[in-house]
Design brief:
336 residues; 14 strands; alpha/beta
Length: 336
């Protein structure tokens, strides 16, 4: 489907921030029942300027600021959805989502089930996510395992401007609640967005083919894994990088197809190791690829400590060396 604005180029090199802003503008223009709400999303245009200019264009009744109360933002979104609207709420930072967990789990995720399908929840919750900007405490988290564990929620995290544009538009068209986790450290990354060609908005995507090992990642870690793959190629090691994109539901078939080719896998994410989403990914790989795996699935992750602030992020977030050591452990594994 061609979503491009009439008269505009079919493709442009823009930042993820600009891609998300354009997607929101088109969603608002296409559906008069869509509303955007959150702290400072109106006049200010959002802390990261994702909603810049939208209130001026669509009015304060459709793009509006809320009190500093995340539970209220999500509770209001549930009520709006019940009244037939398509809310796109924003929490300013991922760590601010904790006060709204009650509304997310007990109301947003369950209302369709509770009403036996008579009350869908077409709510797309935008969450600036993960670390990498050296922000204060509660301004950098990695909550994908928390959200993915909740029945009734879909969870997605784009890694580049093209996918950010198309995945947000796809999410906003769903009758189900979607947690849209935006890697805040990548907001200003520029890349080509083909507005006319979304490709498939579903499932995972191979962003670099390889034959020796699959690196599985999402969000900001995809770019880091691509950097690692470039370095490994200098030593003749061909790494395949799989951008998982959808964290709930996980594309088990795409995951299995990639690892079946390379026969080895390393999962990379920023969240702590224990009960992180990488454990679910590793279990799916083992389930579907057990007969072809040449080594146990390795996980390179954050540590089992609270997400640190400031310069300590550099020690916490998986860096190039830690990922390369994970690759080395898998490639050197020998049975017995």
């Amino acid at each position: 489907m061609d979503d491009a604005i009439p008269g505009s180029p079919a493709a442009e090199t823009i930042s993820m921030q600009a891609a998300l802003n354009r997607a929101l503008a088109e969603i608002l223009a296409e559906d008069e029942k869509t509303v955007v709400l959150g702290e400072d999303v109106g006049r200010l245009g959002g802390v990261f300027r994702i909603t810049d200019g939208l209130q001026k264009r669509f009015g304060a009744e459709r793009v509006f600021d809320t009190p500093l109360a995340e539970s209220g933002i999500l509770g209001m979104s549930v009520g709006l959805a019940m009244a037939g609207y398509h809310p796109i709420p924003e929490v300013q930072f991922d760590g601010f989502a904790y006060p709204a967990v009650n509304q997310i789990i007990t109301q947003l995720a369950r209302m369709n089930y509770r009403s036996r399908g008579t009350m869908p929840m077409p709510v797309t919750l935008r969450v600036p996510s993960f670390g990498g900007i050296r922000a204060p405490e509660h301004h950098g988290e990695s909550l994908e395992a928390l959200f993915a564990h909740v029945p009734g929620l879909k969870v997605v995290s784009p890694s580049n401007p093209h996918d950010a544009y198309h995945l947000l538009k796809h999410s906003a068209r769903q009758p189900d609640p979607v947690i849209f986790m935006e890697p805040k450290s990548r907001y200003w990354q520029k890349d080509t967005v083909d507005f006319a060609d979304a490709g498939s908005p579903l499932g995972s995507k191979v962003v670099r083919p390889g034959r020796h090992l699959t690196l599985v990642a999402w969000g900001a870690m995809v770019a880091r894994c691509l950097q690692v793959a470039e370095l490994a190629a200098e030593d003749g090691i061909e790494i395949e990088v799989l951008d998982l994109r959808w964290l709930k539901p996980i594309d088990a078939a795409g995951l299995a197809a990639s690892v079946s080719r390379t026969r080895r896998a390393v999962v990379v994410h920023e969240a702590p190791l224990t009960a992180g989403l990488g454990a679910e990914v590793a279990a799916l790989i083992t389930q579907h690829c057990f007969d072809t795996l040449r080594a146990p699935v390795e996980r390179v992750t954050g540590f089992d400590v609270p997400y640190p602030s400031g310069d300590l992020e550099d020690e916490y977030i998986p860096n190039v060396d830690r990922i390369l050591f994970g690759i080395q452990r898998v490639l050197e594994y020998r049975r017995g």
